[in-house]
Amino acid sequence: MASGIRLENLRKSFGATDVIKGIDMAIEPGEFVVLVGPSGCGKSTLLNLIAGLETVTSGNVLIGGRNVNKVPPRDRDIAMVFQSYALYPTRTVRANITFGMETRRVPKDAQESALAEFAKLLQIDHLLDRKPGQLSGGQRQRVAMGRALVRQPAVFLFDEPLSNLDAKLRIEMRTEIKKLHQRLGKTVVYVTHDQIEAMTLATRIAVMDNGHIRQFADPATIYENPVDLFVAGFMGSPPMNMIPGRLFHENGQVFVLPRSARERIRFPLDGPAGQGEGLADGREVMLGLRPETIFAAGAKLPGPHRFLFEAPVEVVEPTGPDTMLVFQIGGQDLIARVRPEDTATPGATFRFEVDMGKAKLFDAGTGMAL
Amino acid sequence: MASGIRLENLRKSFGATDVIKGIDMAIEPGEFVVLVGPSGCGKSTLLNLIAGLETVTSGNVLIGGRNVNKVPPRDRDIAMVFQSYALYPTRTVRANITFGMETRRVPKDAQESALAEFAKLLQIDHLLDRKPGQLSGGQRQRVAMGRALVRQPAVFLFDEPLSNLDAKLRIEMRTEIKKLHQRLGKTVVYVTHDQIEAMTLATRIAVMDNGHIRQFADPATIYENPVDLFVAGFMGSPPMNMIPGRLFHENGQVFVLPRSARERIRFPLDGPAGQGEGLADGREVMLGLRPETIFAAGAKLPGPHRFLFEAPVEVVEPTGPDTMLVFQIGGQDLIARVRPEDTATPGATFRFEVDMGKAKLFDAGTGMAL
Amino acid sequence: MRARRTDGIVRPSGPGAIALRVLLFTLLGLFCLYYLFPLFVMVSTSLKSLAEIREGSFLALPRAISFEAWAKAWGSACVGVRCDGLQPYFVNSVMMAVPAVLLSTLLGALNGYALTKWRFRGADIIFALMLFGAFIPFQVVLLPMARTLGELGLAGTVPGLILVHTVYGLAFTTLFFRNFFIGVSDGIVNAAKVDGAGFFGIFFRIVLPMSLPAIVVTVIWQFTQIWNDFLFGVSFTVGDSNPVTVALNNVVNTSTGVKEYNVDMAAAIIAGLPTLLVYVVAGAYFVRGLSAGAIKG
Amino acid sequence: GGTVEVLHWWTSGGEARAVGELKNSFEAEGGTWIDSPIAGGGGDAAMTALRARVVAGNPPAAVQLKGPGIQEWAEQGALADVEDVAAAEGWDAVLPPVLAGIMKYQGEYVAAPVNIHRVDWMWANPEVLAKAGIGTMPTTWEEFNAAADALLAAGITPLAHGGQPWQDATIFENVVLGVGGADFFRAALVDLDQDALNSPTMVAAFDQLRRMRGYVDPNFSGRDWNLATAMVMNGEAAFQIMGDWAKGEFLAAGKVPGQDFLCAPTPGNGFVLNSDSFTFFKVSGEDNIAGQKLLASLIMSPGFQETFNLAKGSIPARTDVALDAFDACAQRSHEDLLKATEANALVPSMAHEMAISRSVRGEFLDLVTEFFNSDMSSETAAERLAAAVKRAM
Amino acid sequence: MARAIERRLPLIVVSPLFAVSLFFVYGFIAWTIWISFTKSGVMPVYDFHGLAQYERLWATPRWYVALKNLFVFSGLFIAISMALGIFLAILLDQRIRIEGAIRTIYLYPMALSFIVTGTVWKWILNPGLGIEKVMRDWGFSDFTFDWLVNPDFAIYTIVIAGVWQSSGYAMALFLAGLRSVDDEVIKAAAIDGAGPWRVYTGIVLPALRPVFLSVVIILAHLAIKSFDLVVALTGGGPGFATDMPATFMYAFAFQRSELGVAAASAVMMLATVCAIIVPYLYSELRGARR
Ligand SMILES: Nc1ncnc2c1ncn2[C@@H]1O[C@H](COP(=O)(O)OP(=O)(O)OP(=O)(O)O)[C@@H](O)[C@H]1O
Ligand SMILES: Nc1ncnc2c1ncn2[C@@H]1O[C@H](COP(=O)(O)OP(=O)(O)OP(=O)(O)O)[C@@H](O)[C@H]1O
Ligand SMILES: [Mg+2]
Ligand SMILES: [Mg+2]
């Protein structure tokens, strides 16, 4: 039932502007692939190419092994959920959902039973006779989902389907989508701006930038082992702290000396980051420390690779479950995520502890992970 | 310079629908008050009433001690930043910013110097001759801020000013706003959907629901001591876990017995939650446990009021910095926020530890905190 | 008209504000008089007897209301040798205007839809070239059009007139619909494509039902234009198939005999009644439709 | 039997009744009558429609069309001849030769006249004249001017006039006839002789016209001729210079000639001829051709000529119809017609499209109207008239 | 195969309509241009005759009157209709409860045909029947309002009637435009201290630029095509003082049987139309590509 998708050296230009610049990608049947990337990087365009809503400039799109470059959307066996839902405003919820089956001349009773099944599943069975204008955002979203699901296509495409919902509903719908995917096992390609969504839904995440795919891997790998500065900086909120500095060796140990740091702090690379190759003395690097790996000294269970340092706190931002402490090293704003009970006062010096076992190291020039 | 705001039994109806249902509120000069609440609860309406963009149905609005019920917006000495920025599309950035001064016949050179000051502050001095259409979202946002700031009014009103920005820019702008408030010390009333924004910016948060103010207190209080289920459920992402159950006493200790829990778990109320009054045996209550207070057994430093229990994990959601574990007690989905390294497999039993010192207790009937 | 969210803005109160309000309503009232004045003259004249018209001032209200002129204009005024009033010609106009309006609206919608939602190479040029048709003075095309109708065997027939109105209405209807469809999200069309609908399926089942505001504006505009047309009607129809405007002209523009002003006015009102009715009934939708995108802005 | 479609602009009053007569007679003979009336602008709208119809290849069988217009259409090959009817009924013998010539193209009848109108009539209200002490109708322009001045002095509008180009031209051509005589009229307004157009006589004619402009009430512009007639009838004005169709208005109002109103020719001892006719267009189909012939024959029948002209106020085109049933003015018209024919003083009307093509006539109308509505000098007017006519030829 | 047809369907649908337009608009324009170079009189003839008709046209004084009238009329008509349209739209925008009724009153003249409009206004403006008479009957015996019959002023009566008929439409367009201005922008201006006057002049009207353009185009095209109104109201008179290119063309083609001159004047009119429409189309299409 689920089909794989292959993109072969896919390119797309609008007039003179290249938007998709040669993408190769193989999506296994049943996978849940999430596309992330900054605004305008070409995510929607890529989805449209797969859907057949835009023609490819060069390269191939294969769905279930079949080249569909010239196949119109309706014959690709796909369904799509749009950011703005794109419900048919003049049709009732029922008619919205059955429209795809009508056009395919599915028998009436088969339509009815499919409708009933998914309306129940999505808890919209009491809304079937309303028009989209009479629905709340979350309800619309579910109708859009229902419209896509009911046709039981081989591939689902989602273009930021949750971005118009409020936080609570978003979390709910996210869980729904995850459950549905697990139940139906269809191939899904999903575009989102929301990193939590990406991390929790995806079997693999593709990080796009400017028409290219930077990294295509499972969520843990993306988060733990970003291939470059772009991916590292893109995932995580607040984003990974980046400290420009220089390597130096002492006593068989590699350290990072932050640039222009008056504080004379040196971060020991005693974790995996220190095991890489080419860690030559004096090399310009970027040290990446995620906010949650910096915490109040003594606040967490003792572990290996811990490194203590002190710095004056600039801003204290309690967010509820956590408190963010903004401090500076080498004139660079850094953020630490500490527990609400680790009280700090702006201006006062604070003792931080950092788990260097989770530090990342990037080449300052190329931005590639070392 | 900054004025306080008093709302006295304020009501507003549109035709037959009551939108603001009697609000009393006193905002001190220089405060930063954030209004939060579900969509449609009347936040924008309240802001509009303060601004004079809607007439009050009954009650009073006082700004700086003066009743302004019949004073048109321009004479209220306020400035407002709108969600859509509401820049004047045909005027340049410069003319957008100076418009308010022009209408008030501020001398040309005073205009110029005010413009120069704030343009510099907001880093838009190189954009002054552009039209709004030629600006990016973040730049527009700053122009809208500039337009409000330059007039140096006594009160600032913000209606979801950051909701159209992407995550990264949002964090940046949030910090800017906080800095500006600290610098200028003006009274601010700020509407947002974003809880992190609310928590980090506010000196006090007002949680609104359905035309009423449920709680008006500083962020920590709102988060730590919500007055009722609504406020507790509204703040926090993922939201507080709510476990319906019954109280019972044993050995001088109060416990919560979750309803219909086959697992026969009982939560000991040995923290502050157990100190309240009226904790009669058999009372129907809601036990509130925030996800971050439930963690993997042994993952955090030992502390008082810890309680261990086991439950099979249903869903594992790694979000990057944390991993969410969904499990059930009494047929109720609960979420625990654990560290990424606390690996769990769906279906397997997991040992959780909960900090009962942070547990909240609510009456099941009224929803009020006990 | 949608309620404005700016209606609640607190306004200055006091005597100055009240005076302004009074001024506002005075002005509005004066303009109402200006616009209603001719209609008043028409209606009151049509209700007077000839004798009263000759004696009194045209501003005076009728002393005794008489519907005789109306009856005559409708059923027994002479148009040439026929004395059946406007009635038969009124029917002609309906037979001509209804199909022409529907046809030109439908084709305009189809055109606008194809040009905006299925953009193909040259769509803009095609649109620009078609739009020019809206601005061509009709006297210019009279003779070649007559020739063409002759060649088509449609000379002097109602279908011929329908063709003419459809052809020259197309430019405006296309313009209206194109401007409307530009504002309709492509997402809906894309969704329908993915749902398996084709060009016509999307048009008839999704897009057309959505375009009610544009349809209202277009139908009103076309109906007014076509119903009120005189030049084409007089040139391309024969005697009994004349539209009501030609008949009205024959009643009003006579050069001999006593001028029956009351009958003239009654006839004029009767001939204008359908369009008037359309504006009164659908006027609100007209402005709403205009703001829904039938104009640029 | 047969079918005939008739395009005309006689849509009301006596004219419409007259056409109704024709229709009734036609239907009495078993024919089918399709009526295509198009009112407005003295036939302009009808001409527009006619052109469209002919271009479309779908002309009506008979059109109310006259004068040189007949020749123009004939030259386009658009007309059908009814020579067999005319020959059989001997039309040549009963029509004035000038008129017969207009009806023929290359010697064959293509049109049938229904009437003869005299354009150079002057109508007056005797009561009003009496008030100003005027006993008789003026016979020269000098007398007219004197009478008008007297009327002005008595506070009465001397001349009822409607400011429409054709009405201006009607006065103009009558003035030309009176000032220059029939030969000059023919030279200037029929043969379009440049010397005649730009001659002192023409200047004198314009001078007289200028004078008459002063006798018109200030509110004359755009007024229909019948309203001007009504002014005379009601005593608001004394004179009207208008063709004999004006008499239809007097009669319709129950006025008696010689008693309630006076008629006299304008100065000049001529006869300015106007005639309505039906012109036959080429149609196809037995039925249509039969209908056309039947119509031709009916139009020229003495019975129809009498009824029609009694209704319309003109005199029959046939000279052999007895005028006993007609009023004194019509009888005077008939006598003058015969006299003028003999004296070679019968001229076709320029203003009423009997003399020259529509394009040249248009230039005349433009100029006369402009002269009448401005303070152009007579000399300039004559010069410009000559130039305009030259341009249009 | 079916798929190929399907893919070209939009083009297949548009093409015949486009072809019809090409023929009925551009074919006929070409025909007119050709006729303007022939010696056509009563009926079209097709032999080339050079520029004679244009020389004739530009030597005809009446043509200059028509041109001058066109400029006077369209200038005043467009300016007054627009000014009145904006003014009324703004008045109606002041939270008037009976707005719907008033709007209908302002809009209804648009529904009436020229014969009706012309007949009534002719009567009202006629000094002997209308306002002047009424005023004099009321005792203002010196009151004079004789524009209709005064060659120097008659053109302004056409402006009066034209404005009466079209300003409501301009009002509707402007009102629609006003209503489409973002509410928050207006609120922002109110807070910025702008009174209603400043809100309109400083913020709202500048934002209506595209609407202005649309209104100008629609009014200009009405002005250029203004044939009906002239015929009904003055018939081109007094004299030919209110002649316009459209009536000029009509008179020459159908009253005078001078098709050649008429065609030449039609070509001049088309050139004027082009001069106005082409820039409009350009901006329209450039706007669509944004
Ligand atoms: N039809 C088009 N013509 C020209 N350029 C286009 C077209 N569609 C998209 N683009 C351009 O291609 C780029 C990629 O657009 P796309 O919509 O795929 O971005 P995206 O990654 O989906 O962004 P977002 O996150 O904002 O939705 C953008 O720069 C956009 O301006
Ligand atoms: N002018 C109005 N007329 C009628 N109802 C209105 C009007 N303005 C607001 N409302 C209603 O009042 C309620 C509160 O609206 P408001 O805009 O204040 O909500 P909000 O809290 O700002 O919501 P959101 O978070 O979605 O912006 C809504 O139900 C809305 O529909
Ligand atoms: Mg996108
Ligand atoms: Mg809001």
From TrEMBL, chains A, B:
InterPro entries: AAA+_ATPase, ABC_transporter-like_ATP-bd, ABC_transporter-like_CS, ABC_transpr_MalK-like, ABC_transpr_MalK/UgpC-like, Mo/tungstate-bd_C_term_dom, NA-bd_OB-fold, OB_MalK-like. Keywords: ATP-binding, Nucleotide-binding, Transport. Residues 5-235 form the ABC transporter domain. GO terms for molecular function: ABC-type transporter activity; ATP binding; ATP hydrolysis activity. SUPFAM superfamilies: MOP-like, P-loop containing nucleoside triphosphate hydrolases. GO terms for cellular component: ATP-binding cassette (ABC) transporter complex, substrate-binding subunit-containing. GO terms for biological process: carbohydrate transport. PANTHER family: ABC TRANSPORTER ATP-BINDING PROTEIN, MALTODEXTRIN IMPORT ATP-BINDING PROTEIN MSMX. Belongs to the ABC transporter superfamily. This is sn-glycerol-3-phosphate ABC transporter ATP-binding protein UgpC. It comes from Rhodovulum strictum. The gene is ugpC.
UniProtKB/TrEMBL annotation, chain C:
The chain crosses the membrane at residues 20-41, 94-113, 125-146, 158-181, 202-223, 265-287. The keyword Lyase does not apply. PROSITE patterns: ABC_TM1. The keyword Cytoplasm does not apply. It is found in: Cell membrane. It is a multi-pass membrane protein. It holds the Pfam family BPD_transp_1. GO terms for cellular component: plasma membrane. InterPro entries: MetI-like, MetI-like_sf. Keywords: Membrane, Transmembrane, Transmembrane helix, Transport. Residues 90-282 form the ABC transmembrane type-1 domain. It comes from the Bacteria. GO terms for biological process: transmembrane transport. Signal peptide: none annotated. Belongs to the binding-protein-dependent transport system permease family. This is ABC transporter permease subunit.
UniProtKB/TrEMBL annotation, chain E:
GO terms for cellular component: plasma membrane. SUPFAM superfamilies: MetI-like. The keyword Transmembrane applies. It is a multi-pass membrane protein. Residues 67-280 form the ABC transmembrane type-1 domain. Keywords: Cell membrane, Membrane, Transmembrane, Transmembrane helix, Transport. GO terms for biological process: transmembrane transport. The chain crosses the membrane at residues 12-37, 70-92, 104-124, 153-178, 199-224, 259-282. It comes from the Bacteria. It holds the Pfam family BPD_transp_1. It is found in: Cell membrane. PANTHER family: ABC TRANSPORTER PERMEASE PROTEIN (PTHR30193). Belongs to the binding-protein-dependent transport system permease family. This is ABC transporter permease subunit.
